[in-house]
């Protein structure tokens, strides 16, 4: 589903861009929009979160099954210069990851099928502060790149739960720090600016909460567990 949406987004944006680039039409929509000091908007989108594991010993990888999640948020955009904008894009991101453990992790330990699977449901309140670097506007579109840092509060975190994996609870930390990189294209319509964009996020801090048993089959071999993900956002301003 993510690949299909990505292909459709690229096809639509590229066709529109080429159509505007080579057309003789020179009428600009929202000609003074980018001269405003502060603008507002909102976005809807899809997300796909993954985990990157680093291990203490060379055992079989923990497999991560990703799912498509939903995103919604607000945009405030501060114009710094003609080509630089500072953006704050708080949002709500809902996603789920399923962790599949190999049986070799339970060598000498009695287990059942449910012990091999951990469902990690996450609801993030996401706070990114981003720098947007744009090219010169060409007719009614303008490409850009964007990057910055963000922090998320995981409302589904069970960091303080006294139960751990021995009781079926896979625990993750509540606060996560990220850096983000992406690109997109601003399209100027008659009444609003529409912006499809793609962004990758990469966690800086370790997120796993380890079990009480240092030799736990679920967390004992994990040196670090960090989120990485892809956002496809559709912004309206």
In words, what does this structure look like?
This protein is mainly beta and 237 residues long. The protein has a single domain, classed as Porin (Beta Barrel), CATH 2.40.160. The chain contains one helix and ten strands, in the order H-E-E-E-E-E-E-E-E-E-E. The chain has one helix spanning 2-22, and strands spanning 38-55, 63-66, 68-79, 84-88, 91-100, 117-134, 141-154, 175-188, 193-203, 222-236. Strands 1, 2, 3, 4, 5, 6, 7, 8, 9 and 10 form a ten-stranded antiparallel beta sheet that branches. The chain is elongated.
CATH topology grouping: Porin
Judged by helices, strands and strand pairing, the structural class is mainly beta
Q: Return the domain count.
A: 1
Corresponding CATH architecture = Beta Barrel
Summarize the entry for a quick read.
By secondary structure, the protein is mainly beta. The protein has one helix at 2-22, and strands at residues 38-55, 63-66, 68-79, 84-88, 91-100, 117-134, 141-154, 175-188, 193-203, 222-236. It is built from one helix and ten strands, in the order αββββββββββ.
Provide key terms for this protein.
single chain; 237 residues; mainly beta; Porin; ten-stranded antiparallel beta sheet; 10 strands; 9% helix; elongated
Q: What does the secondary structure layout of this molecule look like, with pairings?
A:
Blueprint lengths: L1 H21 L15 E18 L7 E4 L1 E12 L4 E5 L2 E10 L16 E18 L6 E14 L20 E14 L4 E11 L18 E15 L1
Antiparallel strand pairs: 1-3, 1-10, 2-5, 3-4, 3-5, 4-6, 5-6, 6-7, 7-8, 8-9, 9-10
């Amino acid at each position: 589903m993510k690949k299909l949406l990505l292909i459709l987004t690229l096809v639509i944006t590229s066709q529109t861009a080429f159509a505007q680039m080579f057309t003789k039409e020179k009428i600009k929509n929202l000609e003074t929009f980018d001269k405003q000091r502060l603008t507002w908007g909102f976005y809807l989108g899809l997300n796909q979160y993954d985990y990157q594991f680093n291990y203490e010993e060379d055992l079989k990888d923990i497999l991560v099954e990703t799912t498509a999640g939903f995103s919604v948020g607000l945009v405030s955009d501060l114009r710094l210069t003609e080509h630089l904008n500072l953006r704050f894009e708080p949002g709500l991101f809902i996603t789920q990851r399923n962790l599949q453990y190999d049986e070799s992790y339970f060598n000498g330990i009695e287990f059942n099928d449910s012990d091999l699977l951990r469902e990690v449901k996450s609801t993030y309140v996401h706070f990114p502060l981003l720098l947007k670097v744009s090219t010169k506007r060409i007719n009614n579109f303008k490409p850009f790149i964007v990057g910055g840092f963000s922090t998320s509060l995981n409302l589904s975190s069970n960091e303080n739960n006294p139960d751990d994996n021995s009781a079926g609870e896979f625990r993750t930390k509540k606060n996560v720090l990220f850096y983000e990189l992406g690109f997109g294209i601003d399209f100027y319509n008659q009444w609003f600016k529409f912006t499809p964009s793609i962004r990758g996020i990469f966690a800086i801090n370790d997120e796993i909460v380890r079990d009480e048993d240092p030799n736990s089959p679920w967390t004992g071999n994990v040196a670090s567990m960090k989120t990485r993900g892809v956002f496809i956002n559709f912004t309206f301003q």
